């Protein structure tokens, strides 16, 4: 009878097709087929593509997932948690700093027992930023109480994503699940992948979302989610959670078996290669394990009994399986793409050692090596070197160095960095050409600036040789602003194109003191610098004849993820300038929408297709938001009106030195992602101003002044003239998008009218 | 029977495309790989060099083919390819494009130069050079360099069926941009037909071009702690002229009124000024010229110029070096003062 049943299942195996895709594409494909209810996300390399592919599929009507572009990863995790409390199926993808930014939400989600699936496309977290792959982000997740599955190939990314939801929702588990795969190596490499032709078998496999669990939207049975506890209760709560996580071990096996029945692909707890009789072995997570298998083949041809172990599950940690696998192994090298500094080995080394320690008969020697950080490639010869270390240990029965870094180089004395230019100090930047005086009558500043030609005596603040795209608008915009700043500046960029292209180690395009900090805390960081500087100066510990001007530069995409920090900094009214460059999207990560992307504009997460016509809501008005903090000076500017911008910079400096915080917003072009001609930057900026999309104005001590009025100059142009320059907005000029275009025009007009009223009425 | 003409010890036939961001080498690599895998039933993989590459920065695209029953586990970049496609001639300056080329390998170059020049530029001693003027074809057909290169690559990869790629090109453009179907097919065919080959005899004792795995300039003994860079502005040591794709601004001092509009719009700070005297003997700034080492050829300056002192120019080999006016940075060391 059982036989017959099995035969029947076999016969009705759902149809699969072959495709050639990357890990990110397969994660998106699995999510689309499952048809999750909600994805709250925020772009970060290298996971961003998952949302991009889902957006692309949405524009073709291939799924119904509500894709919510959050204000940052903290927000995205909040969206996901909130959605999960309703019993909805929830999905997310992130990497590195994004993962760390959301991490406080993760134990809450697992501890409150709401399942969801998060794809962690692994990448380095570090001091000097590195956008490529290692496992240092993943290791921060080990203690979050989530089930963690690891996928070595795009095929496995697809399969584990389907299995993950079923494990998460299982009544024995009820925990969120992370599917972790290697940034770039797995996320971006295209491979042959088999997938279910239709989504029905996938949906049948995961089934309907199980009912009977408490939700936030049950009228009949209202519940309290997230009460607070003391230790007496919390200990018991954690014990429940701990037990559930261990139960995920059996549930994984059960789900993997069921999945094998419909897919023909099996995923055991541990992936073992050559381990039947191995005497030396490598333990590697994800893609590196695959590369090492080729070396196992070669070594076995040479008579070396070599093997590779790679887990498919690391939470719960499969201790028993590892004990079994290593029973007869003389030496194992645990290679880890992360460190637990000061712990004499990274996390998995110790977990393996502790698993072995529980077997009194075990004599396996364990070596630990940190390798391949920040995307450093792992070649066959690296795997060979690892095996050699294990072979040597096995032969001698001794480990020379239990823990070490692999692949490091000492460097050569003669290649040390040498100063290239003489330090550029205040005299250099004091042109004496710019005059700012206070007009007692108007209570405003008066500024005199010379013709641009004379200002060419003033050296640039940034150096040539930066790696921006041809025609990039960031650098003319910033440089013009700094032309108006006299004396020395301390400059902070948070992460974005401007930062990345000026600081590619070991090169810097900065002449003045420069600091980088992460997205969400740029303004806060510089406010700390400002206050420390003045505090030390007050104590007489800094001997300085003239103050710095402190400038924090925010972009791409304007000012989004650091908004909370910016508002806090503004309310504290530190003596500094926040300068936003707005290129209307997160260009550094591949042109995802930001809140400053205008309505209808195409980005890689607001696609144009049958079902969608670019971004769905209007652009953020950062200048007005910041004006509401009642700081002394707010302005807008662009390279197309140089004198206007230089004057505003001079005022900004005066206010930052005498009264407090200044906020400036520059609109700049991104030819690459606006799909415009490299050479058109200035024309596009001009049209943005003359169409009143981007009015030039300032708010000085609360009073609004339009500094260039295209209507008064009889130069106003239609919004469509501006839009016509850019490939990202061409579709808006088509007849079928008339309504969308009018809505955009009306919004521009509404904001312009408000601005004019403010201009005419000093008190509002 | 395997259709692959050659294989390395893991069973792979490997291709490396060398380009700068914006020329479509990644897309070409993807299309090649897909054609092999989906169109011909091979197994394969495709990926690019990763990082925050911007338009104009060096990029690589990799394609691995193998027989359908061979598993691909290797993730690392291709070091010893059978075929190299160089999309952008000016890359020679920045990248060792032929690193690791197999002794009997083929290198395809997008250039108008002759074989001897290419051989010399690349430092090749033997092997097969394929030459195609993809830029000219793309300009004439108003299409992209990558399609012409793809055509030429198909001649080299004769185990792939060109008719299949024509079908892919057709379906790619037909729906959204039907008017681009014919020009792109012509571009592909012209690349296929116009590519020229010359084989420099491979001696029996020939070895593969040695490959060098790039090593970092600094190590743990020479990096300042915390990754600090104390050599401010050392990016001036970089040569970005390889980012240009055929055009640069020509400066005609005669008609210059020294208004500094060009300086204002230039993203790369290429304009070099010096102090002089105006007609009345007062100190005044004068535009001396352009430091082409940093010019990426965006031509914003030409449009900003109110006179005809700046004009578009098709870049000829050697022009920029000859007409470069070097920036007078306040140097402590180095030879640029």
What is this entry, summarized?
Chain A is an alpha/beta fold. Chain A is built from 26 helices and 25 strands. Chain A has three domains: about 240 residues, 3-Layer(aba) Sandwich (Rossmann fold), CATH 3.40.50; about 140 residues, Rossmann fold, CATH 3.40.50.920; about 230 residues, Rossmann fold, CATH 3.40.50.
Overview of the molecule:
- Chain A is an alpha/beta fold and 764 residues long.
- Chain A folds into three domains: 14-216 and 228-263, Rossmann fold; 270-405, Rossmann fold; 450-682, 3-Layer(aba) Sandwich (Rossmann fold), CATH 3.40.50.970.
- Chain A is built from 26 helices and 25 strands.
- The longest helix of chain A is centred in the first third of the chain and has 33 residues, at 231-263.
- Chain B has nine helices and eleven strands.
- In chain B, the strands form three sheets. Chain B has a seven-stranded mixed beta sheet with strand order 2-3-1-4-5-6-7, sandwiched between helices. In chain B, strands 8-11 form a two-stranded antiparallel ribbon. Chain B has a two-stranded antiparallel sheet with strand order 9-10.
- In chain B, α4 (145-156) packs across α6 (181-194).
- The longest helix of chain B is centred in the N-terminal third of the chain and has 15 residues, at 25-39.
- Chain B is globular and about 85 Å long.
- Residues 333-337 of chain B have low confidence and may be disordered.
- Classes of the chains: A alpha/beta (764), B alpha/beta (337).
- The interface between A and B is large, with 95 and 88 residues.
């Amino acid at each position: 009878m059982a036989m017959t049943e099995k035969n029947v299942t076999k016969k009705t195996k759902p149809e699969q097709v072959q495709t050639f895709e990357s890990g990110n594409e397969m994660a998106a494909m699995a999510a689309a087929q499952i048809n999750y209810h909600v994805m709250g996300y925020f772009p970060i390399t290298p996971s961003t593509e998952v949302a991009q592919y889902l957006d692309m599929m949405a524009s073709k009507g291939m799924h119904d997932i509500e894709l919510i572009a959050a204000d940052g990863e903290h927000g995205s995790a909040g969206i996901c948690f909130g959605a999960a409390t309703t019993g909805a199926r929830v999905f997310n993808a992130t990497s590195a700093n994004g993962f760390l930014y959301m991490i406080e939400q993760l134990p809450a989600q697992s501890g409150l027992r709401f399942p969801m699936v998060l794809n962690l496309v692994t990448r380095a977290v570090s001091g000097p930023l590195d956008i490529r792959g290692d496992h240092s982000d993943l290791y921060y997740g080990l203690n979050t109480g989530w089930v963690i599955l690891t996928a070595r190939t795009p095929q496995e990314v697809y399969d584990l994503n389907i299995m993950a939801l079923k494990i998460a929702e299982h009544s024995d588990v009820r925990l969120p699940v992370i599917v972790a795969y290697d940034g770039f190596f797995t996320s971006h490499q295209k491979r042959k992948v088999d997938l279910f032709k239709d989504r029905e078998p996938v949906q049948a496999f995961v089934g309907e979302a199980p009912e009977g669990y408490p939700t936030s939207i049950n009228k009949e049975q209202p519940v309290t989610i997230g009460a607070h506890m003391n230790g007496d209760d919390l200990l018991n709560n954690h014990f429940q959670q701990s037990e559930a996580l261990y139960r995920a071990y059996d549930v994984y096996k059960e789900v993997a078996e069921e999945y094998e029945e419909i897919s023909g692909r099996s995923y055991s707890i541990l992936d073992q290669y050559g381990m039947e009789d191995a005497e030396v072995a490598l333990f590697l997570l994800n893609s590196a394990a695959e590369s090492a298998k080729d070396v196992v083949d070669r070594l076995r041809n040479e008579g070396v009994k070599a093997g590779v172990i790679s887990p498919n599950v690391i939470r719960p940690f499969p201790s028993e399986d590892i004990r079994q696998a290593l029973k007869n192994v003389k030496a194992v090298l645990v290679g880890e793409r992360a460190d637990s500094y000061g712990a004499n080995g990274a996390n998995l080394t110790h977990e393996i050692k502790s698993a072995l320690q529980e077997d009194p008969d075990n004599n396996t020697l364990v070596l630990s090596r940190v390798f391949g950080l920040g995307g450093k490639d792992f070649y066959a010869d690296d795997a060979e070197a690892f095996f050699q270390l294990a072979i040597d240990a096995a032969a001698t029965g001794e480990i020379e160095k239990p823990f070490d870094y692999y692949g490091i180089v000492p460097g050569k004395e003669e290649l040390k960095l040498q100063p290239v230019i003489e330090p550029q100090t205040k005299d250099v930047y004091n042109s004496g050409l710019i005059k700012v005086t206070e007009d007692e009558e108007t209570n405003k500043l008066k500024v005199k600036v010379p013709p641009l030609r004379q200002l060419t005596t003033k050296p640039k603040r940034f150096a040539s040789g930066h790696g921006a795209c041809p025609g990039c608008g960031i650098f003319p915009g910033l440089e013009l602003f700094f032309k108006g700043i006299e004396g020395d500046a301390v400059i902070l960029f948070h992460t974005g194109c401007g930062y990345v292209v000026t600081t590619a180690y070991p090169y810097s395009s900065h002449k003045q003191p420069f600091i980088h900090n992460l997205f969400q805390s740029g303004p806060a960081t510089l406010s700390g610098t400002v206050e420390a500087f003045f505090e030390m100066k007050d104590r007489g510990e800094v001997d300085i004849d003239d103050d710095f001007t402190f400038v924090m530069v925010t972009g791409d995409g304007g000012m989004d993820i650091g908004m909370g920090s910016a508002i806090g900094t503004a309310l504290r009214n530190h003596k500094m300038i926040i300068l936003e460059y707005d290129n209307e999207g997160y260009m550094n990560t591949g042109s995802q929408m930001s809140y400053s992307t205008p309505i209808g504009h195409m980005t890689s997460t607001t696609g144009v297709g049958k079902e969608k016509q670019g971004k769905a809501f209007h652009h953020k008005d950062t200048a007005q938001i910041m004006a509401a903090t009642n700081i002394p000076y707010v302005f807008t500017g662009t390279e197309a009106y140089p004198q206007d911008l230089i004057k505003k910079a001079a005022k900004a400096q005066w206010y930052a030195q005498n009264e407090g915080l200044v906020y400036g917003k520059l609109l700049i072009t991104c030819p690459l992602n606006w799909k415009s001609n490299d050479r058109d930057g200035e024309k596009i900026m001009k049209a943005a101003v003359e169409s009143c999309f981007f009015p030039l104005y300032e708010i000085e001590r609360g009073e609004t002044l339009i500094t260039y009025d295209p209507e008064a100059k009889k130069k106003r142009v239609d919004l469509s003239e501006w839009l016509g320059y850019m490939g990202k907005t061409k579709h808006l000029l088509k007849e079928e998008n008339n309504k969308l275009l009018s809505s955009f025009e009306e919004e521009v007009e509404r904001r312009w009218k408000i601005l004019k009223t403010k201009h005419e009425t000093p008190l509002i | 029977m395997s259709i692959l003409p050659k294989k390395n010890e893991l069973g792979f036939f490997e291709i490396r495309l060398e380009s700068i961001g914006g020329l479509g080498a990644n897309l070409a690599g993807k299309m090649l790989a897909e054609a092999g895998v989906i169109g011909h039933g091979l197994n394969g993989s495709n990926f690019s060099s990763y990082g925050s590459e911007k338009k104009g920065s060096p990029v690589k695209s990799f394609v691995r083919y193998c027989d359908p029953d061979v598993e691909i586990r290797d993730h690392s970049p291709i070091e010893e390819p059978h075929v190299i496609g160089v999309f952008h001639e000016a890359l020679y300056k920045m990248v060792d494009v032929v690193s690791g080329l197999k002794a009997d390998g083929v290198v395809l170059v997008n250039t108008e130069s002759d074989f001897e020049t290419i051989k010399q530029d690349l430092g090749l001693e033997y092997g097969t050079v394929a030459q195609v003027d993809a830029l000219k074809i793309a300009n004439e057909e108003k299409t992209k360099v990558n399609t012409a290169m793809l055509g030429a690559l198909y001649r080299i990869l004769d185990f792939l069926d060109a008719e299949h790629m024509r079908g892919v090109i057709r379906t790619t453009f037909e729906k959204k941009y039907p008017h681009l179907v014919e020009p792109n097919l012509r571009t592909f065919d012209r690349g296929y037909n116009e590519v020229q080959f010359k084989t420099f005899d491979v001696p029996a004792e020939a070895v593969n071009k040695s490959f060098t795995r790039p090593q970092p300039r600094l190590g743990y003994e020479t990096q300042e702690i915390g990754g600090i860079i104390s050599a401010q502005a050392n990016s001036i040591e970089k040569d970005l002229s390889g980012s240009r794709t055929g055009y640069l601004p020509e400066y005609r001092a005669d008609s210059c009124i020294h208004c500094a509009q060009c300086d204002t719009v230039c993203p790369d700070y290429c304009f070099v000024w010096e102090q002089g005297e105006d007609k009345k003997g007062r100190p005044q700034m004068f535009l001396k010229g352009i430091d082409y080492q940093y010019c990426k050829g965006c031509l914003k300056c030409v449009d900003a110029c109110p006179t005809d002192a700046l004009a578009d120019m098709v870049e000829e080999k050697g022009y920029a070096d000859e007409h470069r006016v070097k920036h007078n940075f306040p140097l402590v060391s180095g030879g640029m003062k």
